[in-house]
Amino acid sequence: MKRIELLSGDEALARGAYEAGLKFAASYPGTPATEILEYLANFDDVDAQWSVNEKTAYETALGASIAGVRSIYSSKHVGVNVAMDPLMTSAYTGIGGGFVIVTADDPQLQSSQNEQDNRFIAKFSKLPMFEPSSPSEAYKMAKAAFDLSERFDTPVIIRLTTRVAHTKENVETGDRAETENKPFAVNAAKYVMVPGHAYKKHIALEAKLVELQKYGEQSEFNIAEINDKSMGIIADGTAYLYAKEVFPNASFLKLGFVYPFADEKIKRFAKEVKELYVIEEQDPFIEEHVRGLGIVLKAKDISYRIGELTPVLVKEIVEGKIKVEKAADARKPVLCPGCSHRSVFYALKKLKAIVSGDIGCYTLGALKPLEALHTTVCMGASVTIMESLSKYLGHDKVVGVIGDSTFVHSGITGLVDAAYNQAKGLLIILDNSNTAMTGSQPNPSTGVNAKGKPTKKLILEEICKAAGADIVETINAFDKNLQNKIKELMSKESLCVLIARFPCRMIERGKMVAPVFNKDKCIVCGACLQIDCPAIYKNMEGKITHDAFLCTGCNVCASACKFNALQAAQ
Fold first, then answer.
1. What pLDDT is stored for residue 508 in this prediction?
2. pLDDT at 310 over 70
3. Residues in a beta bridge with 517
4. pLDDT for 327 beyond 80
5. 324 by DSSP, 3-state: which?
6. Is residue 97 within 8 Å of 147, Cβ to Cβ?
7. What is the pLDDT of residues 135-149, one digit of tens each?
8. What confidence category does residue 569 fall into, taking pLDDT thresholds of 50, 70 and 90?
């Protein structure tokens, strides 16, 4: 039965996958892909799971496919980097049941550490790729991707960007189609990639790409719209919508099946129009290929490879202008009131520690006025960079910090590495029992699974000891002796782990008692502002104000005030 539903791009893609007979889904939370698995977890007939990282998610989804069921892997763009090892070889093995890979890219770095353009992963891995420009297309392409996957025995990539993933649209949906599982058969030549097998599979993969290119020539998602022939535009994803909005009378070649390229269709379109433009977001993925076909075109200046595209920028590109960067006018991000990470960073700042950080809310510890986090590279890198910084700068000066979810994701292997190589130093696990930055998803340290049901709980103290840490201690993140404990462990000639534990404020709604603020004792020295809590600020008259409504009673501000203007409630 057909119905109209208001769905985001993430939800529409998930709905399309569900209706296509999806039975297994695996992911690690990461904006802007998180809602795909959250949506799928609502269906009893879909086995949806949060994995500990993207590599394990990819491998379990691929394994389900090999077993014969339709499966999906989804993550944000940098998550695909973590899954690249199995992804590259799965292009050789092919699939059993239909297998779809979703990469959700993040132009403009709304919540990411880089702006990589994952269209290049399709070319690099030799896997076909769809790219929707709207939630409706995401819904349709999800269905098409499963059929294509089984028709060509290949994983199929769908690339979203933040703008499509989080945009909502009325989508006409239907009923779920129950699909028969593909029969599993032992086939070492297909699934065991020793060199002899892999070489033959590479030959087969190249031949498969030729056939996929023929599919692209006929694909309903590669659409030529011939209007005013004085201006022709080749575009994909949201770039197509922006260009259509600015130049509604132009001719368009919309590429929804972006790889392999439909060369003949591109050549025919180029001959139809007088002046050809390529409009695309981020890198020159289409531009370079079209130029390689010997076609003369106009494209954006390299300044437009940075950041998100907009209709205004499309107009400037066609006018041949160079992009001028504008200073952001949004307020800076800040840790939540009462966040347990604040007390740790405040202590580290007072100790003048050199801090290697990681991916999560606590990356905000790098911003003023805390400025107590000094490196952030990728998931899990806090531990391994701490290992090297401690070796060359002195372990009594260096501390690594990582969240509980990120520690499980890829910090454990770093700790094993540090122990194996006899490193000394202190790692602090900021355990708020939450994957807060992406919306409070559970992880193995919470003892709850993706469907909200109890499961085995990972005990961080035990895993740290098993990984080889010499000393493992646990402390309340708001303990008044926190700074002294950190200082003590920094001085040890050992590999130490301190678990600073306190529930995230997003899941811990019970407030402690707010401190008492005595205005008459306040000399506006600004010490309380150095903890960067939204509940404390200067008012229009330059006076310190304590917002009791926002305050959650952590009392870190009271510990910072030397004049007893802020005092912990008794």
1. 66
2. yes
3. 566
4. no
5. coil
6. no
7. 999 999 999 999 999
8. confident
Q: Which amino acid is at 432?
A: N
Mean pLDDT of the chain: 95
Tell me the per-residue pLDDT of 462-475, one tens digit each, with 9 for 90 and over. 999 999 999 999 99
CB atoms within 10 A of CB 31: 18
Nearest to 431, CA basis, from 464, 471, 469: 464
Phi/psi of residue 54, nearest 5 degrees = -70, -30
What angle, 0 to 180 degrees and rounded to 10, lies between the N-to-C axes of helices 263-272 and 195-218? 30
Residues shown for the chain: 570
Sequence-ordered list of residues with C-beta below 8 angstroms from that of 419, at least 6 positions apart, any chain? 467, 468, 469, 495
H helices present in 421-549, as ranges = 460-467, 482-490
The span from the CA of 42 to the CA of 201, in Å, is 38
DSSP letter assigned to residue 411 = I
**Whole-angstrom distance, CA of residue 368 vs CA of residue 281:** 32
In three-state secondary structure terms, 566 is strand
pLDDT at 510: 59
- CA–CA gap between residue 272 and residue 224 (Å, rounded): 10
What letter would DSSP give residue 183? P
Predicted pLDDT at 364: 94
Nearest to 354 by CA among 394, 303, 313, 295: 394
CA distances from 61 to 51, 124, 127, 368 (A): 10, 21, 16, 42
- Which residues have CB under 8 Å from 469's CB, separation 6+? 415, 419, 427, 495, 496, 497
Per-residue pLDDT band for 402 (boundaries 50, 70, 90) equals very high
Contact (CB, 8 A) for 62 and 16 = no
Phi, psi of 193 (to 5 degrees): -90, 65
- Pairing assessment for the beta strands 228-236 and 71-76 based on DSSP bridges: unpaired
Angle at 380 between CA 377 and CA 381, to 5 degrees: 40
Query: How far is Cα 20 from Cα 100, in angstroms, rounded to an integer?
Result: 11
Give me the percent of the chain exceeding a pLDDT of 90: 90
How many angstroms separate the Cα of 14 from the Cα of each of 9, 11, 264, 445?
Answer: 8, 5, 32, 27
Q: Looking at residue 444, what is its pLDDT?
A: 93
201, 284, 380 from 193: Cα distances, Å: 9, 33, 29
Q: At 9, phi and psi to the nearest 5?
A: -60, -40
Instruction: From 136, 138, 151, select the one nearest 74 (Cα to Cα).
Output: 138
In what helix (H) or strand (E) does residue 164 lie, and over which residues does it extend? helix 162-166
**DSSP track, 209-242:** HHHHHHHHHH-TTEEEE--EEEEEEEEEHHHHHH
Neighbours of 58 (CB within 10 A): 29
**What phi, psi does 26 have (nearest 5°)?**
-140, 145
SS3 content of the chain, % helix, strand, coil (to 5): 40, 20, 40
For residue 113, what are the CA distances in angstroms to 175, 206, 210, 335, 354? 39, 33, 35, 18, 20
